Amino acid sequence: MTASSEQTGRKALVGLGRAELERELAALGEKPFRARQLWHWIYNQGVTDFARMTTLAKPLREKLAEHFDVGRPAVSREQLSTDGTRKWLLRFDDGNEAEAVYIPEDERGAVCISSQVGCTLTCRFCHTGTQLLVRNLTAAEIVGQFMVARDAYGEWPSPMDGGRLISNIVLMGMGEPLFNYDNVAAALKILMDNEGIAVSKRRITLSTSGVVPMIERCGRELGVNLAISLHAVTDEVRDRLMPINKKFPLAELMRACREYPGLSNARRITFEYVMLKGINDSPADARALIRLIKGIPAKFNLIPFNPWPGVEFECSAQADIKRFSDILFDAGYSAPIRQPRGRDILAACGQLKSDSERVRCSRLKDRLAAGIPDEHPVA
């Protein structure tokens, strides 16, 4: 574990893009090619000690160490599931925390990354949604989650695709990525840079609950795979499950999906659908789902509901999930049933939650006591 930039008093370099890194070096009187060398050491080699950056002259290394830091978020807690899923509770400089998860799949796996501390969406089936939004994560904190995972699995320097254990990134952790677009976009551009961490955009999936105005921009500027957290086939049911649907109803969401840049049979949208007993799991629901997404190159990810303490919903029966899947398959769509991962450590879909809610609640009480309205009202 490395000391945080707040502890050292030095500026963090992780999370800076190429132009920002050049500006920081220029302020020290260094030429642009030094920034390229530094980029390589930080994002390709994963080095956290300037003394090890041996292509840089020793006086420059010493100068960098005086002014900058290349550490990671601190790991407050690490848990390993019986199925190989690994979860980190990460603490940031201000004491707030978020969770990241490594999800194994055959010989490879994905890192599930958070974009916010808490969440503002309050989806009723999601444990993370019971934790009110504390704040957005910075680009440094988003990139840092992936770098912590790389550290844990010893995957530095950045390996070629064929040799990676950590092959994919999914923005499906805590928070709504499109409510923190600028920081998410900055982080993904760093993660995708071919001279650094070098994760292909084809191996990155951004999941949104349906922030319609940002979907086209995401596709145009980032080109990553899109996943829609759908979970219902009517506005009535989706309004109940996901309050964001009242602002961006299904018709608007489906229109944004049809217009997603680069969409084709080779680049389909994934529709995530959590299976809730007696709520959205009937054969009629499956057939309505087919009608809803007609004309959209699509595949489905059927998610058996992962319970958490105090939740009002139950998971659909296995036979009902299988029947639902078969209807979608018979209509020509890929509709696998997701194998739950990390349930024993609350690392499965919809189960992430940190201890930082108390910070948000404390701040909210202070704001309300001072007569200042909540800066992140929940719909």
Main beta-sheet strand count, sense and barrel state = 9 strands, mixed
Described by the principal axes of the CA atoms, the overall outline is: elongated
For the record, the CATH architecture of the largest domain stands as: Alpha-Beta Barrel
Instruction: Enumerate how many helices there are, as a single number.
Output: 12
Supply the CATH superfamily name of the largest domain: Aldolase class I
CATH class of the largest domain: Alpha Beta
Could you tell me the strand content as a percent range? 15-25%
Helix proportion: 25-40%
**Number of domain modules:** 2
What is the C-alpha radius of gyration, as a whole number of Å?
21 Å
Number of strands: 13
The oligomeric state is single chain
The name CATH uses for the topology of the largest domain is: TIM Barrel
* Alpha-beta classification: alpha/beta
How much is the average pLDDT?
88
